């Protein structure tokens, strides 16, 4: 499932990100969006773009197109 598929107030764990685009993957990793990271989806704008997520103590706005490249699994805690 992609990060873009997680509903607001949802929590998930990153399992992979942009495997085919190493430059973009490096950018995501620098933002804290690397495998094992817990992500809270705080808000999704109208039409699903952009999403506001929290990784650790960092708030990030990410385009739906980019969130589609981040593979996640639902997490309870």
Description:
It is a single chain. The protein is of the alpha+beta class. It has a single domain (3-74), classed as Ferrous iron transport protein A (FeoA) (SH3 type barrels), CATH 2.30.30. Helix content is 17%, strand content 38%. The protein has helices spanning 22-30, 64-67, and strands at residues 11-17, 38-44, 51-55, 58-62, 70-74.
Features:
single chain; 77 residues; alpha+beta; SH3 type barrels; 2 helices; 5 strands; 17% helix; globular
Topology (elements, then pairings):
Elements: E1 11-17, H1 22-30, E2 38-44, E3 51-55, E4 58-62, H2 64-67, E5 70-74
Antiparallel strand pairs: 1-2, 1-5, 2-3, 3-4
Q: How many domains is the backbone divided into?
A: 1
Major beta sheet, specifics? 5 strands, antiparallel
Terminus-to-terminus distance: 18 Å
Beta fraction: 35-45%
Question: Helical region count?
Answer: 2
Q: CATH homologous superfamily name?
A: Ferrous iron transport protein A (FeoA)
Low-confidence parts, pLDDT < 50 over ≥5 residues? none
CATH level-two architecture: Roll
- Structural class designation: alpha+beta
CATH class: Mainly Beta
Strand count: 5
CATH topology: SH3 type barrels
Order of adjacent strands in the largest pleated sheet: 4-3-2-1-5
């Amino acid at each position: 499932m992609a990060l873009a598929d997680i509903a607001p107030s949802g929590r998930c764990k990153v399992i992979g990100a942009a495997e085919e685009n190493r430059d973009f993957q490096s950018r995501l990793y620098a933002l804290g969006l690397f495998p094992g990271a817990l992500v809270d989806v705080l808000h999704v704008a109208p039409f699903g773009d952009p999403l506001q997520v929290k990784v650790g103590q960092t708030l990030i706005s990410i385009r739906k197109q980019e969130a589609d490249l981040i593979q996640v699994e639902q997490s309870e805690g």
